[in-house]
């Protein structure tokens, strides 16, 4: 058995964050008033810019007063700026504008010292070797999910990590990166039961779970599943995620070991939108080097999702991603003016058409490597159809639905989503997208 891997952390950012942690009071975010940071932090989502602009619109923390306008450089400062108690910050609706400076490694304690997987597991009885021994299919079988002492220990260790790296964000918040290199490393922003949140100009990197769960009943061969998205919208409304970069960074899936002949998957989504979330615009982001990027709707059996999950994705770049770009259940989702740069690594599909989904995919530019046919771009997860028009595949008009249906005659997709998007502020000629999105999408480009 391989030893339990510790989280990788690039040496330089850790040294920088430790140096900064020593230079400022650790738990007191710095009020900066209105004068210091650049005013783009106060921007609201423009009118008619996607579903996030519907009804009351998305203004985030643009109304924050001077005392709630802060620059944060450490995890402790971030938690302080969001209200002071991570367990309660999710319900803190005070308008707040939070500028992130440099790298914040969320696997750090209140003094800024790095925490590793072994720190979270301490005292729980969990070790990877013991977990692998207990739930080896040769011992445990393949018909039941793990239960018992080692699974209880894994859950306890997972919760210890969650308390550190899962950062609750309440209503009326803007979180924006300062300058070109603002980064949240190793964690999850959780927007749960909150309204009116903006995230801009941030790199969100490697939200790795130290304690993946083995599920032998997930597909015929079993799967390792992990807990954390970079951003989770859970019963969240009016959210604008813009000009941010999502990546696994130096901790790539391809470098993970196999256990029980299955990839040890330490990541979940990049921006997942579930549990009746509504009115979301994701614009000018880069989603790269990751497997499952954007889940919209997490359950076929949900009774609360129908009628919600209205999301716009525009001017985003999906680069070298495996699947879910996005994968949709129920929602009216407008996917326009995006670039799909499919990599030569593991690729399942891009747009997943799930139960009750009403996807409109128009004016997108799809770049496929040789050997990947256009029929792979869509996948039918139990949907009835979508609107797909004016998309380019490798520079030429591409009929994504026609290609899918020719390759999958038993599970064809219809050609109408049944609605027409109106909240499009800026439609770029599709042929220009590789240059326009390539030059302007992602963090550090505002
Ligand atoms: Ca998962
Ligand atoms: Ca997720």
Tell me what you see in this structure.
- By secondary structure, this protein is an alpha/beta fold.
- The chain has two domains: 1-43 and 55-283, Pectate Lyase C-like; 299-446, 3 Solenoid (Pectate Lyase C-like), CATH 2.160.20.
- The chain is 16% helix and 28% strand.
- An eleven-stranded mixed sheet has the order 1-2-3-6-9-14-19-22-25-28-31, covered by helices on one side.
- The radius of gyration is 21 Å and the shape is globular.
- The N and C termini lie far apart (46 Å).
- The relative contact order is 0.11.
- It binds calcium ion (2 copies).
Percent of residues in helices comes to 10-25%
What radius of gyration results from the CA coordinates? 21 Å
Unique ligands: calcium ion
Q: Main beta sheet: strand number and arrangement?
A: 11 strands, mixed
Strand content: 25-35%
Enter the CATH topology name of the largest domain: Pectate Lyase C-like
In terms of quaternary structure, the protein is single chain
| Strands, total number | 33
Labels describing this entry:
2 domains, disordered N terminus, Pectate Lyase C-like, alpha/beta, eleven-stranded mixed sheet, 8 helices, globular, about 450 residues
């Amino acid at each position: 058995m391989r030893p339990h891997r510790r989280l990788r952390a690039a040496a330089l950012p850790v040294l920088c964050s430790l140096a900064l942690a020593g230079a400022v009071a650790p738990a007191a975010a710095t009020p900066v008033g209105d004068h210091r940071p650049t005013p783009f932090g106060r921007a609201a989502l423009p009118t008619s810019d996607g579903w996030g602009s519907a009804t009351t619109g998305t203004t985030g923390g643009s109304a924050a007063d001077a005392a709630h306008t802060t620059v944060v450089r450490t995890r402790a400062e971030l938690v302080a700026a969001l209200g002071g108690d991570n367990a309660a910050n999710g319900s803190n609706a005070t308008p707040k504008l939070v500028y992130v400076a440099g790298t914040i490694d969320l696997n750090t304690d209140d003094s800024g010292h790095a925490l590793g997987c072994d720190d979270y597991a301490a005292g729980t009885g969990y070790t990877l070797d013991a977990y692998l021994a207990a739930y080896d299919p040769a011992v445990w079988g393949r018909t039941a999910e793990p239960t018992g002492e080692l699974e209880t220990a894994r859950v306890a260790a997972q919760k210890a990590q969650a308390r550190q790296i899962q950062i609750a964000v309440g209503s009326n918040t803007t979180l924006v990166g300062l300058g070109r290199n603002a980064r949240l490393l190793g964690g999850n922003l959780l927007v749960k039961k909150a309204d009116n949140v903006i995230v801009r100009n941030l790199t969100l990197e490697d939200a790795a779970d130290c304690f993946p769960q083995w599920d032998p009943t997930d597909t015929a061969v079993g799967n390792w599943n992990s807990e954390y998205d970079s951003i989770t919208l859970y019963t969240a409304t009016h959210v604008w995620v813009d000009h941010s970069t999502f990546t696994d960074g130096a901790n790539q899936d391809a470098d993970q070991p196999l256990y029980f002949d299955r990839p040890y998957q330490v990541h979940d989504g990049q921006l997942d939108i579930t549990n009746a979330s509504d009115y979301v615009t994701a614009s000018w982001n880069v989603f790269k080097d990751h497997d499952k990027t954007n889940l919209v709707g997490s359950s076929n059996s949900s009774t609360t999702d129908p009628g919600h999950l209205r999301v716009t994705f525009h001017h985003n770049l999906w680069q070298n991603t495996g699947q879910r770009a996005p994968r949709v259940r129920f929602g009216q989702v407008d996917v326009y003016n995006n670039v799909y740069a499919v990599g030569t690594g593991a690729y399942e599909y891009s747009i997943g058409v799930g139960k009750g989904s009403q996807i409109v995919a128009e004016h997108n530019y799809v770049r496929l490597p040789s050997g990947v046919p256009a029929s792979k771009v869509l996948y039918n997860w139990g949907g009835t159809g979508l609107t797909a028009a004016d998309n380019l595949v490798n520079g030429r008009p591409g009929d994504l639905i026609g290609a899918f249906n020719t390759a999958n005659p038993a599970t064809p997709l219809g050609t109408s989503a049944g609605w027409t998007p109106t909240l499009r502020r800026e439609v770029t000629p599709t042929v220009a997208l590789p240059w326009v999105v390539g030059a302007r999408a992602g963090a550090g480009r505002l």
